[in-house]
Here is the input.
Amino acid sequence: MTDNPPSARHPDESTTTMTELVLPQHTNAVGTCFGGTILSWIDIAAGICAGRHARCTAVTVAFDDVHFITPVRLGDIVNVVARLCYVGRTSMEIRVDVWRERYDEPREHANTAYVVFVAVDERGHPLPVPPLVVDNDADRLHQEQALERRRQRLAKAHVPNRA
Ligand SMILES: CC(C)(COP(=O)(O)OP(=O)(O)OC[C@H]1O[C@@H](n2cnc3c(N)ncnc32)[C@H](O)[C@@H]1OP(=O)(O)O)[C@@H](O)C(=O)NCCC(=O)NCCS
Here is the structure.
């Protein structure tokens, strides 16, 4: 069932937390997790978040720079938290924070990624998404910063900015 026009939804409704354990098949020769594996977890968490908001399939259209500063090692627990920052007509920007957890240490922030998804129909054509309810200072700031990232991203990708 789809509501037409879609009613606005709060980011809390779609915020997604995923927990993974770093296993031998996720690690490289020095025992740290492959960057590509972490990117894949980020993509999955962001995709679930986008799909929960749009209530349909959403595909990745852009991935901003990700820097791997904190090593994530074999046996570490990885928490991936995805939350919507901004919603356009058919696109959604999701901030994904990755946290490293060890039983005997405080959680450490490993990295942050900004990922853009577009809601699509069964033929892969973009679909309008519900507006985002932004009702607190933290989400307002994230939305404001997302608008600037969107402007820069679209300029780089040579996509007309209809914001
Ligand atoms: C995503 C896709 C459906 C968009 O189709 P399109 O014909 O470019 O559609 P539009 O030009 O109408 O753009 C749709 C939205 O995407 C945004 N967009 C398009 N290209 C973008 C880019 N490079 N970066 C960020 N946003 C982008 C547009 O700004 C628009 O947002 P809005 O509706 O909120 O204003 C199409 O590019 C596609 O199928 N890409 C491949 C997706 C995929 O397979 N991903 C998996 C990894 S390979």
